[in-house]
Design brief:
alpha+beta; Seminal Fluid Protein  PDC-109 (Domain B); 20 strands; four-stranded antiparallel beta sheet
Length: about 350
């Protein structure tokens, strides 16, 4: 209350007016005084200067043993004195234990009191970002790591995906053709091929095709033959297909039958004079194969020529997928014609 200037009454003249002025001044001073019982005026309209002194016997209606951060305010939740929640960017402290209903209603019922108030942007949709300020306003920003601070140790295993890798040109491989240790480079097919060792009969690697001269020589063990070079090597001409021999044998048909040389032939069976069975190591796909034969005439025989066939003298079936039966006999029209005869050299070849 400000000081009340009162007029001094010195005589009876004007006494009533002077008293009324003094009373008005006193009333105005009391109107500017806070009420103890809660009647108006009961609020300060300016700062109160205590001049360094304390307000004694100040009551504190809220005693909080500790603060308990509860996160975002949630309805239908029991809150205790000292609980702190946040909603709409403002932190509130619970000053009356209660079960929450509508926040605006609870706030109007003085169950909450502002604890910290800031003007922060919403957290919704900003997971993994950080809060930044320019000194005037705050905003959520993405985390950006400076290029110079990214080391191998900071990148998790299998964390780099293909879209995060540098683009490369079409038909390129990643590797390094330059000498020494260094960055990964884009390699053409030719460069990648040069990195491979040459293949051999015992080592896997790069295979080159033989040219016409190498194919004809037939001595190179590191190059492959194309179909055209194979035809050249076999001295074949024209466009007709070629078929390889599937089995062959050169054997002695006199005395104890014995193989001199063979391919895909496992053994021979001597069925009698001039009668032999050639057994295949790997069976033919069917019995539609072609049998070619040649013999060498015995010097001790009177026969001028020898005939070979895959039919026995009894006309029994001679072909199977696993073997073929051949007969050598005297050729011609003489009295011995068709008689089976052992010969010194029998040659049989199978084509399919």
């Amino acid at each position: 209350m400000p000081k009340v200037p009162l007029s001094t009454i010195t005589s009876g003249y004007g006494t009533v007016d002077a008293l009324n002025l003094n009373f008005n001044a006193i009333e105005a001073a009391f109107d500017n005084t806070l009420s103890r019982d809660g009647d108006t005026p009961n609020q300060m309209s300016a700062n109160l200067d205590m001049n360094g002194f304390l307000i004694l016997n100040q009551a504190n209606p809220y005693v909080v043993d500790g603060l308990n951060w509860r996160g975002n305010w949630v309805t239908a939740t029991a809150y205790a004195l000292g609980d702190i929640v946040q909603t709409n960017g403002i932190a509130y402290i619970c000053i009356v234990a209660h079960t929450s209903g509508v926040f605006a209603t609870d706030l109007a019922a003085v169950r909450w009191q502002v604890f910290v108030q800031t003007n922060l942007p919403t957290q919704t949709g900003n997971s993994g970002r950080y809060l930044s300020t320019n000194g005037t306003s705050a905003s959520w920003e993405n985390v950006v790591i400076p290029d110079t601070s990214v080391t191998t140790a900071k990148v998790a295993n299998d964390a780099v995906t293909f879209p995060k890798m540098q683009n490369i040109a079409t038909a390129r491989l990643l590797g390094r053709a330059s000498a020494g240790t260094g960055d990964v480079e884009e390699l053409t097919g030719a460069q990648a091929t040069e990195l491979l060792s040459a293949a051999s009969e015992t080592v896997s690697g790069r295979v080159e095709l033989a040219d016409a001269t190498e194919a004809a020589a037939g001595t190179d063990t590191t190059r492959a033959l194309s179909p055209a070079r194979l035809r050249d090597a076999l001295a074949a001409s024209g466009s007709a297909p070629m078929y390889a021999c599937r089995a062959w044998v050169n054997f002695s048909g006199t005395g104890t039958v014995a193989i001199r040389a063979s391919g895909n032939v496992s053994s021979l069976t001597d069925n009698g004079t001039g009668d032999y069975t050639v057994n295949f190591t790997t069976s033919m796909p069917d019995t539609g194969y072609c049998v070619l034969g040649a013999t060498q005439r015995n010097t001790s025989s009177n026969a001028t020529s020898v005939h070979i066939s895959c039919n026995t003298h009894s006309s029994a079936t001679a072909r199977s997928t696993g073997s073929v039966r051949v007969v050598t006999s005297v050729a011609g029209t003489g009295t011995e014609a068709g008689t089976p005869i052992d010969v010194e050299a029998v040659n049989v070849a199978i084509f399919r």
